[in-house]
Model the fold of this input.
Amino acid sequence: MSAADRDKKPDAGETSPRAVPLSRGLSTKLLLLTVLFVMLAEVLIFMPSVANFRIAWLQERLSTAAAVGLVLIDSDPDTLSPATQDDVLMAIGARAIAVRDAGASRLLVVSEMPAVIDEHVDLQAVTPMAAMRDALDTLIFGGQRMVRAFGPVAESDKEFEIIIPDAGLRQAMLTFARNIAILSLIISLITAALVFYAITRIMIRPIRAMTRAMLSFGEAPEDPARVIRPAARDDEIGVAERQLAEMQSELQRTLAERRHLADLGLAVSKINHDMRNMLTSAQLVSDRLRGVKDETVQRLAPKLVRALDRAISYSQGVLTYGQTREPPPVRRLVRLWGMVEEVFELVELGTYPEVELVNAVDECFEVDADADQLFRVLVNLARNSVQAMSGRSEPDIVVRRLTMSAAREGSVARIVVEDTGPGLPKKARENLFAAFRGSTRSGGTGLGLAIASELVRAHGGSLELLESRGGRTAFQLTIPDQPLQLNEARGKLRRPA
Done:
């Protein structure tokens, strides 16, 4: 990346602000949403409330008119003067009062009979939907209409009716709607405040604490003090805090391992040059030893040369592992019996005379693998086995044996490395193939099995622990043959002999 590109890169503070503005915070959004939802709930109950208010208002006027009508029925309505009738109707707000008895209708009081009746309301048979529809119609279009309301009142067998303008009704409904709106707003604010306080104490504060902990951890992830300390809660927030603490702790361990790995790669790269010079000098000496006319020297010199070559290869292998690079395997058919013999010869140079080495591989057994990489895997497993069985305080009668065997199942080769050692400890089994954590002995790095597992996976196979107990520990390598390329095979068949 060039300097100009680095200059264009946005600052971390621009992409990840440490403080969220109040207008965009969760608490503000929660408060507004609570007010909105409560208002929506009030809207849902507003229309039924207004419809009931309208029916109750008309019912009240009809009840008053019925009381007046009963008095007029017992007396003579014709004796009332026009002024008295106007006063009676004005008190009710109606234009006329009538009664229906035994199928006959009788007009009791009237001041001015309107020419047109705009709406007829049967207070006994009105349905909820019709009541809400009529209430909405009155609120929007009312104020200049005449309404005829009728129905029985209380226990009376008579049916009364009134003719009344809806101007007063509409005004009363508007006042009621205003009061409902104000009350709804007050209820919404109170509810929102209570919900806001409860949610803030239960959720928002812990989430803010988790956010601050994540930001603080991001500044210095290697500092153990930056790991969040979860509260003793059993709800989702408590689970999230504990999971975050585990993730941060695991990330710290991973970063430490990567740092160790980087240090290892740096250290190996620094000593690699000097080691190569020393090994080259040793190779020159071994070449001179080949000229010595001694049978023992002639027998050991080639082994020494191969050991020096592999030492150079191993140092480079550790370096490439530190750089998280491993060359792809160059696969060919390899006679496993001869490779196992070379592995045992190299192990014998480590002065483990008390360990019996058994090559149980058939001399004709072949493996489709990279010879160098498979050799490294077997050497790692063999060294781990002989080191686990040597230097112990058991009597001489204790069997110390390392056995390598192989078998084929179709196109899959299975290689078993078995020893009679004490078995792997529980901690080593849990992190067996993890670098720096899978060491089977004190002072080990745990790289051997990690590298071996990686090399086997590169072949499309697997390395697994079959059994580990006192007296038997067995590892199994599973390496499938390379898949046959049909185009290449067909081309070979078509070529002339």
